[in-house]
Amino acid sequence: MPELPEVETSLKGIEPYLLNQTLKKVEVRNPNLRWPVSQQVHTLVDANVKNMRRRGKYIILEFDAGAILVHLGMSGSLRVLSHDSPVEKHDHIDFITQDKRICLNDPRRFGCVLWSEDWSKHKLISHLGPEPLSKAFDADYLHRKAKGRNVAVKQYIMDSGIVVGVGNIYANEALFKAGIHPMRAAGNIALKRYEVLVEKIKAVLAAAIKQGGTTLRDYVGGDGKPGYFKQQLLVYGCQGKPCVSCGASLKEIRQGGRSTVYCVVCQT
DNA sequence: CTTACCGCCTGTCGGC
DNA sequence: TGCCGACAGGCGGTAA
Fold first, then answer.
1. What would the pLDDT profile of A20-66 be if each residue is shown by its tens digit?
2. A184 burial class (0-12, 13-18, 19+ CB within 10 angstroms)?
3. Fewest CB within a 10 Å sphere: which of A58, A89, A244, A250?
4. According to the CATH classification, is domain A4-121 in 1.10.3430.10?
5. Closest nucleotide to A73: CA versus each C1'
6. In degrees, to the nearest 5, what angle opens at C-alpha A129 toward C-alphas A109 and A120?
7. Which sequence spans correspond to the domains of chain A?
8. Which residues sit close to strand B, CB under 7 Å?
């Protein structure tokens, strides 16, 4: 499941092949992603890629006339391939340049490829909270926004309107490292504890980005599994195993349909 | 406004 | 061995 570090790694991986180059066309083999691929994407011809950036888990390709927004969903990946490399199952979209085809492969099709004339005002983007690694994301902000909110802190930090890019894996890890119980009401957490939580969120995401940059060197994206980061996950997927800190058996619960794993002793 | 729940998809896994 | 249902999960949309 691509989370922010994987998206960042994917962006860095395709950038050398797209930035300041001419996108000759976009070949759409299957337009039926989460939303149908925008008509403007189908008909795009010889467009210069002026800029590339990430916002949350969206990859944004900027042109003179507008931008393409790419989301990898649950299972999407981007790979840099040559024109004669075989088309594989779930290779839905190719971004065609002189030399390469940058291919979106997405088995579950939860991703999307959309056109926007002004990406920052697009409805999928405009409501997003700050980037987790930016200065705008700090304890004061997180504490202030939580006032009066009864929602569980884990769901709170996974709310993209609060902060982007904190997915299930890193939410579990950050809450463990911060010693905060995932069910605790967001509005019932002291500023001091949010200071720790913010620090841990930033640390775990930064570490994962660093790893992604080295481990995925020879291809972009990956298989959708947290393989390269897996070895240092302390709670996610570790239910029933002993807590690395106190030895108690890690407990699994469900929150909003998602798996939460935590230590009943260390997280309060 | 907040919160709870649905559903989009297919690969994987456990049970039989 | 093979079938089949349950499940996973980001996240927008909708209902309460």
1. 999 999 999 999 999 999 999 999 999 999 999 999 999 999 999 99
2. middle
3. A89
4. no
5. C10
6. 70
7. 4-121, 139-262
8. A 32, 34, 74, 89-90, 107-110, 148-151, 155, 256-257
Q: pLDDT tens for residues A165-200?
A: 888 888 889 999 999 999 999 999 999 999 999 999
Active site residue A57: yes
Instruction: Round to a whole number and report the distance in Å from the CA of A34 to the C1' of B6.
Output: 15
- The fold of the A139-262 domain, in CATH, is Helicase, Ruva Protein; domain 3 (1.10.8)
Whether this model's pTM surpasses 0.85: yes
Owner of token pair 């959708």:
A224
Contact A216, A222 (CB under 8 A): yes
A 10 A CB-CB count for A257 gives 5
Between A217 and A128, residue with greater pLDDT: A128
